[in-house]
Protein 1
Amino acid sequence: MTTTSPAKGSGPAEQGPTNEGAPFLSVRDLRVHFPTDDGVVKAVDGLSFDVWRGRTLGIVGESGSGKSVANQTILGLHNPGSTRISGEIHLEDQELTTAPERTLEQLRGNKVAMIFQDPLTALSPYYTVGRQIAEPYRKHRGASRREARERSIEMLAKVGIPHPARRVDDYPHQFSGGMRQRAMIAMSLICDPDLLIADEPTTALDVTVQAQILDLLLELQQEFGSAIIMITHDLGVVSGVADDVLVMYAGRAVERGTVAEVLRRPRHPYTWGLLTSMPRLRGDVDQDLVPIAGTPPSLLAPPPGCPFEPRCAYAGEVADDVSCATDRPALPEERGAACHLTAEQKRTFFTERIKPRLR
Ligand SMILES: Nc1ncnc2c1ncn2[C@@H]1O[C@H](COP(=O)(O)OP(=O)(O)OP(=O)(O)O)[C@@H](O)[C@H]1O
Ligand code: SF4
Ligand SMILES: [Mg+2]
């Protein structure tokens, strides 16, 4: 699908907040495991990342890599009875994995909001759209019914719903799929969250509306200095709106850095594969695309070494005393990639084998 991204202009990457100093959100060694009849699904398995105020972190990775599960954990959305969670999630000075439900309830829809991948998860069929959009505003701001309704209409207008004063009284089934997604975005933005987690927020929307929504998120960020996590399959969206990037594979981060670093000088063979699969970034859609061969590993029994090893074209090229099949590569704390190739090998392989395909 083609996507239009707003121009970042003089956005935070150039002039605004940096990724130095204390992050607003800090996730460390997060594991989210689901025991099932077939075994334990290790959906997230040792994930660490940071998000700063005023900056947008783009999280990319194939379907099933754990992007949604990891971010739902920040909001405490998994059933504690059927999920094993370990690691730490710090939101400023608050630790969230051990926080009581009451604390999380106070955060949700207020300081931290999420735009869900599937609008039907967030909207009940039994209440009007307006009432649902207004709910966090009434709950967290103590607004009256009338104030909340006015704010709902204002938010519906902001996300581009025509005749908002009339549509506010519609039920979700009276909205199209794209309108429901916009209604959910309105609900997530109603309390001007400090951290917004946007899980594929623009997938069901047409190109013009996508650009409008991405602009709206950047406005929120510029006005309130919000931190944004943008989960997307679309590296075009990442290059348009994100400052930092985290590349996920099989429940872990395999590469991280600023957008300029990761998109211009990627260091992980998986990121190379993602980039060569992206027509918008390659600039020449007529050339054959180079998809990543094979499928992601089973999360029930992930490979003991590098999780990407079964699909990696470079697996045999690392030093003699290192085995991609049995030695798990670590991701450096700052910028870098979880890969055994030396810095020199990465530079050479990228320049000689990957870069020519990106032109
Ligand atoms: N409650 C659950 N029980 C068992 N497995 C689960 C559960 N929830 C998610 N999973 C599995 O965890 C893995 C990660 O899922 P997740 O939804 O985070 O992927 P994703 O990266 O968001 O993918 P997509 O891009 O398709 O949205 C998947 O294999 C999924 O099937
Ligand atoms: S560690 Fe080995 S298998 Fe994994 S990405 Fe690097 S070269 Fe490929
Ligand atoms: Mg998802």
Note: The pocket of magnesium ion (ligand 3) is lined by residues 67-68, 117, 199 (CB under 6 Å).
Protein 2
Amino acid sequence: MKILTTDIAVIGGGVIGLATALQLRTEGRDVVLIEPNEPGSGASYGNAGTVADYAIIPVGTPSVLRNIASLLLNADSPLAIRKAALPTLFPWLARFAYESLPHRYRDNTRKLSDLLSEASPEWLELAAQIDASDLLSAKGCLYLYQTEQAFKSAQSDIALRRNVGIEQQLMSPDEVSRMEPNLPQIAGGGLFFPKAINFTDPGMVMKRLEQAAATAGVFFLKDAASTIVRQHRRVRVTARSTMVDAKTVVIAAGAHSGRLAAQVGDRVQLDTERGYHLEFDMDEMPVERPVCPTKHGFYFCPMAGRLRVAGTVELGGLSAPANQRRLDALLTNARRVFPYLGAPTRSWLGFRPSMPDSVPVIRPSKGGRDVILAFGHGHIGLTLAPRTARMVSRMIAAQMHEDMQS
Ligand SMILES: Cc1cc2nc3c(=O)[nH]c(=O)nc-3n(C[C@H](O)[C@H](O)[C@H](O)COP(=O)(O)OP(=O)(O)OC[C@H]3O[C@@H](n4cnc5c(N)ncnc54)[C@H](O)[C@@H]3O)c2cc1C
């Protein structure tokens, strides 16, 4: 078996692994990125493309907790569960319920708002570095509330965002119609995030990240990491055909990271929130910016040559195939807004790497700083990639400094 020696081995080539590998290579470290598939072809490919610096509210909230049974057991709701997966998911769900309690929800909101505070400027900088500024749009993002009651219920979240300085504008139904004239009239209102930016083609952003990393000198190893073992002052990652000996290993394998983390002594409650998208090829977009009918839990995303309808949560693990019922529900709800939408051009299932508290795991392994965990970004992994890359690089710099002194 071939042996590669490097400073850093990054496991996983999604947006988190790619951004981290690029950051570390830019700082002069030798980096091997281990990825069995096309880099950026996992969850990072099919998302809604929003740099959602306003998304400080975790999935688990007191309101979700109150409605959890009806939400989970309705196969068409924005947060559903595959019943067959219930026994396996029970520990994650129990923790999710705990994290939805008022004191935990407030704490998780604070953690998310700290992480998200600089997401837009951080992405503007990274997009310029990887030559992807042309893929950014800056027309804000719009939430829709169908009924006055729904709009009222959103006020506490709105206040929380206001308290941490997120710019948001409440809009009357008429103002919503003026901003997005193709939307049907709604009774509730809108919430506009004027500073929000988004990508018009997340798959292309991944290609540019990959190109930038390769040009900078990151070595891509097309293989799957199977074991991680600490050795004297090195960590050995064994893949199918190669062993990689690194000073530091970064686990960034998205929803697949749990098993790898367990091998180095970190038992994390990572699972997946499965999400879907439908795409409709078209030249004229019905919306100018990402628009989220909040009741249905997805975004209409105007993208290059196509409208992408992306979102919803299905708890149900990594192995079951796409659930046609979820895709049908997404189509039905999309047609409630734009009844003329025909058959989708393509559909997609992706696996968000999700923690019960919605807070990503970005920290050294409990067994030692020679392994860094960088996964569990749930709904905001695209948004948090530049921040995660910098945090990991600071952790590695601190470790190297310590090593030099010891
Ligand atoms: C429908 C939907 C909409 C979304 N919308 C948004 C949004 O608008 N904004 C936002 O910020 N986020 C959004 N997200 C979330 C975001 O896409 C994810 O949080 C993010 O892509 C996670 O990135 P990642 O690199 O951790 O995982 P991934 O992109 O899944 O990458 C993990 C990689 O690890 C590789 N891997 C797995 N096992 C191994 C192994 N053993 N060895 C080596 N490599 C391995 C996989 O092949 C994969 O390429 C959305 C997600 C979904 C599903």
Note: The mean pLDDT is 96.
Protein 3
Amino acid sequence: MRDHYDVIVIGGAAAGLSAALVLGRSRRSVLVVDAGEPRNAPSAGAHNYLGREGVAPAELSAIGRDEVAAYGAEVTAGRIVAASATTGDGTDPVGFSVTLDSGAVVTARRLVVASGAVDVLPEVPGLAEQWGRGVVHCPFCHGWEIRDQRIGVLVTTPNGVHHALMFRALSEHVTAFVTDPSLVDDTARAGLAARGITVVDAPVARVLSSHGKLTGVELGSGEVVELDALAAASTAEARVDFLAGLGLVATDQFMGDFRYASALTVDPAGQTSVRGVYAAGNVANPMATVIASAAAGTQAGAATHGDLVQADLAAALATAGARAGA
Ligand SMILES: Cc1cc2nc3c(=O)[nH]c(=O)nc-3n(C[C@H](O)[C@H](O)[C@H](O)COP(=O)(O)OP(=O)(O)OC[C@H]3O[C@@H](n4cnc5c(N)ncnc54)[C@H](O)[C@@H]3O)c2cc1C
């Protein structure tokens, strides 16, 4: 690891490695720092990634690390714990310094933040242990794998009824567990009934598993409902604590009045409100799938390179002007 790079990429999964790939191929010096906890790590396979359908998340990252290394990008295991602005370098007005959990301090002309999001789960005993396996959130990511099975859906948000209908497209055996009756009005109940979805008006007290496999849920009454899978909504919180020194914070994301996530605000190229700091993937878009996160990383990497090209031009013109004036 050197002391200084053109670009430091924070996070080395789909978004970060895609940014590093385009930057490496553009002959930029790049350091990727990765804490090694991609959001989909609990899942056996990442789906809807064309060309690598069903690849294990860790395998996709390993392939990406090899690909970026082939273009000279460095990848190091570690966690960025702090970031701050420096005065820049010559004619380039911006620059950054980051601190790793090892205590190492590294500087760069630009930052790409690709640190993803953390899923905050409903507080139901036994649920977290099954997250990404028996407990799922995304019909596109896991639906095919649980088609025709007995699927429960925890209706804990205003989007819960839609969630149940999405899973009903995959199985005829769907049960909606309604914790808060105000989330399901008469029209919604009529829709659930019309689609043959069983409604249980009782909170789930516990998720049950046997030998690592989800087997059902236990209601507050003690009644057990046997299931093969349970769908639940998480709140996706952007991983941004280390950006406080740059004044960058995540903002709340809403569906109607319902807060479902937090994320950094970026323009279409991935530029954040701090000049020279770009962001891509779930940290800026909690709904982005793996392939969409990779695409956003490519876009942010390309924009970062374009930004540096302009800074290089300004430096070259200043040098040429100085020579002419001498
Ligand atoms: C259970 C589950 C299953 C999913 N299945 C699918 C699927 O099948 N198909 C699909 O398309 N999408 C799926 N998704 C969504 C998918 O996880 C995201 O689209 C994807 O992970 C976003 O990629 P990313 O690169 O933005 O972030 P992440 O994959 O979360 O990667 C961020 C990386 O940054 C690192 N990091 C964080 N903070 C720091 C720091 N301070 N310093 C250094 N490194 C840091 C993390 O450790 C991690 O390695 C699933 C999500 C979940 C929760």
Note: Helices lie at 14-25, 57-69, 127-130, 139-142, 160-168, 186-194, 290-325.
Protein 4
Amino acid sequence: MRAAVLHTFGDDLAFEEVSLEAPDPDEVVVRTVASGVCHTDRTMQKGANPLPLPLILGHEVSGVVEAVGRNVTYVRPGDHVATCASSFCGTCRWCQRGALQHCENKGRSRPAGRPPRLSLDGTPVEPFVGLGGFAEQLLVHERTLVKLPQEMPLDKAALLGCAGITGLGAVRHAAQVQAGDTVAVIGCGGVGLNAVMGARLVGASRIIAIDRIPAKLDFARRLGATDTIDASRVDAVETVRELTGGGVDHAIEVVGIGPTIEQAFAMLDTMGTATVVGVAHPDLQVQIPAAQLLLEKRIQGTKMGSTRFRLDIPFYCDLYLSGRLDLDALLSRTIDLVDVNLALKDLDAPTGARTVVTF
Ligand SMILES: [Zn+2]
Ligand SMILES: [Zn+2]
């Protein structure tokens, strides 16, 4: 099957014929229909977290089940599915606590001794987070998959497996925003825009979108932001304080750098919570004024929106199908796999919401 393969960090992906093994008893072959182009793919392409090469990027995928291993009962051929990097084993201590995002046994690669799932001229090929979505087919563990309603458009469903669950989940599960709360979202890329939609869904009173790119702020307004702040022109913290008469109940930080994490805490009202979604560099340190903790302000992190994706993704599909979640606006364009290199480069100066590769 045809796949876009990364051979050297920083290089373009090369189009290759990759071989797929037959599925093991707990594995599933999926024919790819749509695969979102996420900022994480771009940072991995550049070598931010040197993974084994050659590598197939792409991790928010939807498709149709083609074949299943003999022990698979969850899906059967013909089922429509989406993937999630937050796969789970069901038995480790984190799964038992309901925190699947921290599962210690995600099944991203086969057990030692088994031939690799994918290969190129006899060399093992690594699918990113066990998925590898920039390819015509996936061979994955069944617990990376969630079944979709058959009427759910698969290009829209692909948006849910990473940016959707993370942004919506940050609001619903991590921050637990309540109806009437005020919310600021710092960073309006794919995840931030989903956080804006999540804040609207749960009935936030004020939804303040903050970014440095006006086109992203326009998107945020279409998706439910009540106010927007161009942080390249004004001080975001001061402006939030003016707009809200003190500060917000929730700041959702989706950038992952020191200044914005510190701003998220600084723009909180008394008893407010800053939820950091952005993935920070491992060496990054941040400073917060400790005296503010007396005001019962909190700062917390979340991984993948603390999602339980087999509950969350079908729920978001229902919301989309009933007109309550505007994934149409979020999907800015679809492209062919041959154009994936251009789409990845566009992420260095993004202007739209989400690009999806369709097959
Ligand atoms: Zn587990
Ligand atoms: Zn992603």
Note: The first helix runs from residue 39 to 45.
